[in-house]
Amino acid sequence: MIALFLGSTTLCSPALAQDQIIELQEITVEGGSGSPLSGGTGYTAGSTTAGFKGGVPVAEVPRSVSVVTAQELKDRNPAQIEDAVAYVPGVAASNWGVDDRFDQFMIRGFDTGSTGIFRDGLIQKTINFSSYKTDPFLVERIDVLRGPSGVLYGPGSAGGMVNIITKRPRFEDHAEGQLQFGSHNTGQVALDMGGPVGDSDTLAWRLIALSRSGANEIEGSEDDRNLVSLGVTWAPADATEVTFLGHYQQDELTPNFLFPVAGEDYDASLGDLPDSFTYGMHDFNGLETESWSLGYQARHDVNGLLTLRQNLRYGQQDTEYRHLYFGWMADADTMEFNAFTVFERATTLAIDTQAEFRGGLAGGDNTLLAGFDYYRQQYDGTQGWAMGYQIDVSDPNYDFPVTDPAIYQDQKNTVDQKGLYLQNHTRFDSGITVTAGLRKSWVETETVDRLGGTTTTQEDDALTGSIGATWDLGNGFIPYAGYTEGFETNIGTDFFGAMFRPSDSEQFELGLRYLPGAGDLLLSAALFDLTKTNVLTTDTDNPGFQVQTGEVRHKGLELEARGRLGSNLSAIFSYSYIDAEITRSNDGDQGNRTAKVPEHQASLWLDYAFDGGLSGWSMGGGLRYVGESWGDNGNTRRVDDYVVADLSLRYAWENYQASLGVTNLFDDGYFATCEAGGGCTRGEGREITFTLSRAF
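-> structure tokens emitted (696 positions)
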């Protein structure tokens, strides 16, 4: 793989020196629907930055990639990012039910955790208990790249990454106001406006503001948000463009809860707990965050062969988190509760600098991307914990005081992450494209323990590669094959004091795309084999310690169809099959199915725009099926499968649009996941939202 990569980049050099006219693919990042940063056309997008940072056609990415377009976001009007990707194959969203603290997904059975979510191409980590949540009203599109992404993005989830692309200034006047009312007395007002500054053709702005007051289905909960986002684009020439992006956001939310289940977490003879049994009922519970970010995206075309880019963002979040949660059964009819607190400040700095060289190669077009990225994250704060709060199963109530527990952790944690990467993309006249990449990453972690009076550091490095090819057969069919690598760091030491090595991941994938006609329909199928090694497992020789002999292997099939089926009908279909197995473990679970990974998932969304006498009306409906899974790696706690239905009804006239959206239309009760002996998280119930918007 390395030899092939070096060979392709070497061949690029003499080609650049040739005096010839070279036809290059358009990679401009602003403007038309084919731009990798635009919302796409209908339910399809022509290009993406997820597989190649400079942007390439989706058809030329040698691995699975899906795009949630602006039109899909408008039609489905998701309440949060998890809802937005709910119809993407291979993605399990809202794994923790009504929990709205974080944007959470599993891709191909691996939790994205703190390393798999990006905003505008820069990582947007959940740091300890601080998460920079993105409101869908800010979002232009969402790209989902499945499988390890170690070459372009460094340490990350084995399952893949989600890149949230936000709205940015346009050189045309626009304004939209929105009023929204929904379940649980939720009300929201939002504004999106912008355009050129005066008569300028070099300076544009965009302001987005939103205020929401409400709750979710948890009794006593909060779901309040205030945010302001401002973007300014300066384009003094066609070759140069700089966009400044900043935002400020306040959230007041309710922590998730684990619902103890009769016959599982306590004696079935005591009967079921009432539906009103929630942790939101106690005044102690709450999550308040205040966050802001500021950054820019800059591009300069030096000439027809060289483009320079740099993206930068600094962010900060203050978090106050209090949670009274179910722990275990103290006796046959007494539930033990624990009080938990977090008070912390998290900061991030991300910089990605790129140079893109374009030229001819062996009768085709060649693009070489070279880059250096740097990321620093830091959190500074305390955690407290106390036990001893009890509730009688036969008479559950929260009529007791809870105070902030004693602090058991007072830390400052800093992670510095650096990477050098090369990626080469060659498009041959035969219809074949070859993409190969290589990256060297360095990660340094420092933890200052103020209670213990100690400072520990850990240094990791990794070399990751990728290679893949696509072949446009000229009849709409495009087969592809790809191999990718990734890694995740593990903090800590074994019995002998040796630092844990990163966990490695590698994926083999074969796929087939079909793009008939004008490109407004995309069909795809993919087979993948994804293995994660150096996984931590119990040290059988030294109890209380771990060794890195564990391994997890996920194999599967994904199907996706999205686009226009007729002049008035659009559709999204997805299906995922994942054979998830713990292949090596000392924890007594070798051979078991990985926890929280459904074997089967399927979804279908249909959207129809009426004409004739019903012109202006449109409606959409969808079904989402999630198969059964296990709540734990021991496979002792089964989570039943479920089906939910969604509905959208819209009417547009003049500059107005009224829409009615319903998720979980039939209010089917289900558990999103369960823990062995620790209860279950309820899935999201029926949510009804009415939205009135006007364009000015």
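The chain is about 5% helix and 55% strand.
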